[in-house]
Specification:
single chain, 22 residues, mainly beta, two-stranded antiparallel sheet
Length: 22
């Protein structure tokens, strides 16, 4: 899996998600 630009992957009790910080 390659991060497009600045992709941050996080995991929590609800599941997982992706965010792109500025």
């Amino acid at each position: 899996m390659r991060d497009q630009g600045r992709l941050v992957e996080w995991f929590d009790e609800q599941g997982y998600g992706f965010i792109q910080p500025n």
